[in-house]
Amino acid sequence: MRIGKGVTRRGRVLLLGMILALAAARLPADEVVGTLDAVGSDTLAGLMLRWGERLAERHPGVRLQLQASGSASAPAALTAGTTLLGPMSRPMSAAEREAFVARHGYPPVELEIARDALAVIVHRHNPLETLSRRELDAIFSESRRCGAERPIERWSQLGVTLPGDRIVLHGRNVASGTHDLFRLRALCGGSYRVRLNEHPGSAAVVAAVAAEPSAIGFAGLNHLTAGVKALRRRDAGGEAAAPTPAAVRDGSYSLSRSLYLYVHLPPGGTLPAPERAFLELVFSPAGQAVVEAQGFVTLAPARLAEQRAWLAALPTAE
Amino acid sequence: MTDPRQLRRRRLRDRLATLLITAGGVGVVVSVLAIGVFLAWEVVPLFLGEGALAPAELWQPQPVEGYAEPQHRWRPEPLVAGDAVHYGMAPLAWGTLKAALWALLFAVPLALGAAIHSALYMPRRLRARLKPTLELMEALPGVVIGFVAGLVLAPWVERHLAGALALVVTLPLGAVAAGGLRALLPAFLRARLSPGWAGLWLAPWLLLVGSLTLWLAPALEAGLPGGDLRGWLEATWGLDVASRNALIVGLAMGFAVIPGIYALAEDALSGVPASLGEGALALGATRWQTLWRVVLPAAGPGIFSAVMIGAGRAVGETMIVLMASGNTALMSLSPLEGLRSLSATIAIELPEAAVGATHYRLLFLAALLLFAFTFLVNTLAEVVRTRLRRRYRRLEGSA
């Protein structure tokens, strides 16, 4: 009896050992396992989720948990230490950066992950093709800081004949990166007209403009549909810039911006394996293909190579 | 015979149940109060200490760049440090009230009419079907109603403005005309078209009136000076027509408010003791006289509280206003211009407002205002309803 019992126990240990050995054999030594969190921009939500899916294809043990409640939530979560990755559709403000430094003693790492642009859109049947900076400001703002003399409230002032002559304005809401960028670059920092219809998303702006022949609006480039037409911007020399990928990439189309990913990384420190795998994916050709598929514009090759080199130089976690 | 131990156990169980129920009730009351206290706690720092806001900054027009006269502006976030910010909340509060007003203007006649009709005229069989259907209407989420209103109804009204405005006039007139025409019909036909089944024969009639209106509207519009309704409204009345306007919001929110008002008003009307109506009819009053002089006054407080509850819902409603209105913070009464409500502002801006900043606290002030308003309206409605119940009991006791 006693011997038999001993054998069974030994047998069990053996079995356990075999299972472990088998499991170890199935997992390659460098397999990445874990959950990675990201908190931040809702503009970037679609892009982050697609990257998360690609990452899960590469490393089946990794899952991305994304909380996309707005760019302002990223610095707060990074400072509080609840996440290591904070996607933002605007650069961190000085106050946000200071709060992070005050808590941790070093700044967060800023990575540029894609380029984005705002398009000024009209209904697809609108004959208008280009707008100058002053005209755009005179249409959307009540301050006219860009130098226009008179406000533009009617299509006839632009030489366009439409059934509804009064210009109807659509745009994003207060407290969105899109709203702020347009205000800064198109209105010269001035203030919007009160009559601007404020929508809670770029898709809603596009839908509203597509349904209204006398409307004009601004929205993220990646939300455009066949129902609307993007206008080109005419500069002082009469040259018109269209929001093409090349113009967005080098910034010659002025309504463009960079999209960022902030990483909580102490100087000389290492990144956990899931986060590192995620960043490797982001800067890989496959990751940049996702950027394009999502309607954003990929980074300039030089910038991409620079950030890839930074990532490769990071010490690996043991 | 009863075992004293069993008795004791039962008593203990009773006491425990009473305790739990009381705790639940007290818990609910306390948490409602806690919400109010929490909101007030977040708001108080606005008006205290350094950089305190003057109430005039919130409620009175302020000087604005580019304007000679002071204006109401809601511009709570500076773009760069040193930018002018404006905390005018008056347009937001105004937008909330305006949306609720237009919603009630649309919903109250319809809901009360439906309640009176179904409580007093409708055959029981039909009524049993109608009530659940209307309750189903209440189950529709606000997002869906707002989506349909913003992306389907608003563009349609935009394209058929003349027709839509004409419908607002012709449909109620058509319904009244139907009653008049019915009285002129020969007796045998009139008996076929009983008032109880009005829903069945009125619907095709209204459909006819509606299509006729839409068919004739372009011709009518062409008859205006200039041949364009929009231009004519602007030239003669100074009215600006926005595609996302208070009329659309009122229509959509009215749709959401109707079931609530209907249910409460119907309860109040069918709760009027039958002896009252029967007595009036027996004394020779007509149906209309019975309704107008006897039943409605008896149910008056109940109907009032139904409307109050509807108002409370309309003021607090968020998604419908957010999606159907253009969120333009204007101060105008015109039903053809846009609006921005307190609740929609909170929903849009709170996720992006920096915690503890003035903007953040102002959004809490907006929440506090909404809370106080709905609290007052609901309490008022409840008090009136309790009084009504007491009155019924007295009437039934004396009958």
UniProtKB/TrEMBL annotation, chain A:
<dbReference type="InterPro" id="IPR050811">
    <property type="entry name" value="Phosphate_ABC_transporter"/>
</dbReference>
<dbReference type="InterPro" id="IPR024370">
    <property type="entry name" value="PBP_domain"/>
</dbReference>
<protein>
    <submittedName>
        <fullName>Phosphate transport system substrate-binding protein</fullName>
    </submittedName>
</protein>
<feature type="domain" description="PBP">
    <location>
        <begin position="31"/>
        <end position="284"/>
    </location>
</feature>
<feature type="signal peptide">
    <location>
        <begin position="1"/>
        <end position="29"/>
    </location>
</feature>
<dbReference type="Pfam" id="PF12849">
    <property type="entry name" value="PBP_like_2"/>
</dbReference>
<keyword id="KW-0732">Signal</keyword>
From TrEMBL, chain B:
<comment type="similarity">
    <text>Belongs to the binding-protein-dependent transport system permease family.</text>
</comment>
<keyword id="KW-0813">Transport</keyword>
<feature type="transmembrane region" description="Helical">
    <location>
        <begin position="134"/>
        <end position="157"/>
    </location>
</feature>
<dbReference type="GO" id="GO:0005886">
    <property type="term" value="C:plasma membrane"/>
</dbReference>
<feature type="transmembrane region" description="Helical">
    <location>
        <begin position="163"/>
        <end position="185"/>
    </location>
</feature>
<feature type="transmembrane region" description="Helical">
    <location>
        <begin position="294"/>
        <end position="315"/>
    </location>
</feature>
<feature type="transmembrane region" description="Helical">
    <location>
        <begin position="16"/>
        <end position="41"/>
    </location>
</feature>
<dbReference type="GO" id="GO:0055085">
    <property type="term" value="P:transmembrane transport"/>
</dbReference>
<feature type="transmembrane region" description="Helical">
    <location>
        <begin position="99"/>
        <end position="122"/>
    </location>
</feature>
<feature type="transmembrane region" description="Helical">
    <location>
        <begin position="197"/>
        <end position="217"/>
    </location>
</feature>
<dbReference type="Pfam" id="PF00528">
    <property type="entry name" value="BPD_transp_1"/>
</dbReference>
<protein>
    <submittedName>
        <fullName>Phosphate transport system permease protein</fullName>
    </submittedName>
</protein>
<dbReference type="InterPro" id="IPR000515">
    <property type="entry name" value="MetI-like"/>
</dbReference>
<keyword id="KW-1133">Transmembrane helix</keyword>
<feature type="transmembrane region" description="Helical">
    <location>
        <begin position="246"/>
        <end position="265"/>
    </location>
</feature>
<keyword id="KW-0812">Transmembrane</keyword>
<dbReference type="InterPro" id="IPR035906">
    <property type="entry name" value="MetI-like_sf"/>
</dbReference>
<keyword id="KW-0472">Membrane</keyword>
<feature type="transmembrane region" description="Helical">
    <location>
        <begin position="362"/>
        <end position="384"/>
    </location>
</feature>
<feature type="domain" description="ABC transmembrane type-1">
    <location>
        <begin position="93"/>
        <end position="381"/>
    </location>
</feature>
